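Open question from group meeting: does this chain pack into something compact, or does most of it stay loose? Before anyone orders reagents, we agreed to write out a predicted structure and look at it together. Recording both the input and the output here so the notebook holds the full record.
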Amino acid sequence: MAVAPHLHLPSTDRVLSSRTGWTRAHWEATADRMLDALTPYATPGFAQYRLPGRGSWSGVVSDGLEGFARSFLLAAFRIAGAGGAVDPALTERYAAGLAAGTDPASGEAWPRLTDCSQQMVEAASVAVALHETRPWIWDRLDAKVQERVVDWFSGFVGGRTWDNNWRLFQVVSEQFLASVGAPYSASDIEEGLDRIEDWYVGDGWYTDGDGRNFDYYIGWAMHLYPLLWARIAGPGGDGGRAAAYRQRLSRFLEDYPHFFGADGAPVHQGRSLTYRFAALTPVWMGALADCTPLAPGLTRRLASGTLRHFVERGVPDERGLLTLGWYDTFLPSTQPYSGPASPYWASKGFLGLLLPPDHEVWTARELPLPVEESDTYTALPTPGWLLHGTRHDGIVRLVNHGSDHNPPAPDLPALETGADPDRGAGEDDPHYAKLAYSTATAPESAPHALARDVDNHLALLAPDGTPSRRRRIHPLRCEDRVAASWSAARLPGDEHPYRIETTSVLHGPWEIRVHRVEAPEGAMVREGGHAVAHAQSPFASSGPDWALARTPDGLSSALVALYGWDGGADGAAVARDVESNAYGPHSAVPYLRSAPRAGGRSVHVSLVVLSRDSIHPEALRTAVRVRVDGDAVVLTFLDGRTVEA
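Structure tokens returned:
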């Protein structure tokens, strides 16, 4: 795939970077293009960047501040990484923006910092950028401008933030105040850092606030800001906390390369995916804080591979802008609070520019990703995930039995307690609720597709076709190549929660799902595989107990019935949709459907395939023998491996 010509990138270096061809010069050129492209959208004093696209719920002025603050991060990494040797216009623009943004008479002043306001998010970016560019921007600001900047930041002191990663915005911003001798609250900083201790759950993982909130925020927020705070606090100013933060990040990074496909794509899971290559943040921070377990050549290969992945697919676009979406504009992959400049949190993915050009991360030869060396299986019990990658096609798949982005579950040992297992849970989110995700697919997430909720979901279907939802996920097991969880299913007009328990077993490129389903009389059971999407309509085919969808470039998704599916001639098919998937306008999902149930409990076993190989579903039916004896389900594979689910 060719790199977008409008970026004017240097020639590739296949000696230093045998996998990607990219060097530090490619990163600098990409950053410069992104920064230059913003200038036509600046307000006269450069305090705001008002970009085209859907506005957020915070309003146009807040969106304009967001454009300044998030791009200031990118500018700061570029300026500081070059030791100030950049086009002087770059530093001048952001210095001017600071002056105008904090001047109430400028006509483009930033909103004051108030409790839980969007300005708090953006202030943290400004604080980090000011710290990193101190010799070139802060130290050269007029004293009156410095006073106004301090006055603006003072809105944090004693203020209230949302009780999640937002606590860290207050921490870094008030530490910046302390670093310039301005009034601040030491208790605000201490309480914020103490609070994240409640969310550290082990093995390098935090949850973003209370509940099971696992996604890329763990890397680009929960690991990032504590170590940025330590940089601002300086040697000896961290009270010993930074050692723990470095240790946790090191442990997190041991597994993190397994989230990336051979083509550089990160697994498509979680919220705020429009930040795209911000997923690289913890990789760079590990090198910057000297706590990474990754070899320098692996760090750069992972980072350059991911940035190049997006550049090859039109990110930034022909204007040099980041749009609200994944590759192209795709609003269902955003949140209501996302404005046109929100994607510029992707600036965090350029953190590595703070490493000097002679750092070994930039000078070592690239090393292969785990998925480029062998098939991989990685169990992550803390978030309840299994990762499995296949070397021959470079795809990484994530099997989800633990992250649901809901408040903590009530203490319920079983449904039989009579309590509601979904009490307090919100609506299911397709970026959390699915059984599986991957580096090659995205969930169907447009509103019209959510109503059907087919892909990577086991649902009870009411007689009118309404599917049950997977809201709160209750993990049961995650080890080796097996993970399991249960959730409660409801149907319209029926307040009874029906228990659905699913066990996933990995074998080669396959996932075998064993479902134990409780259902009312008349309900049907339906399961979908991965949604594949492309610019052209995927091929679809189905037969007795199997269904397959394949894109024109050879990515195939198949679902094969192994046990308990009795849908007859209508029991397997492919659901098509348009404008519902971040990977392309035409999408297709293979699915299985049972006949109406008599009520009670049943067992359903299916084989899920996502591959760039040729797939023969009829042959796959013989690849796994299934024996069901009461509650015991035994799977026997062709190589003799036996697993009891």
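Observations to bring back to the group:
Residues 60-81 form the longest helix (22 residues).
The chain has a mean pLDDT of 95.
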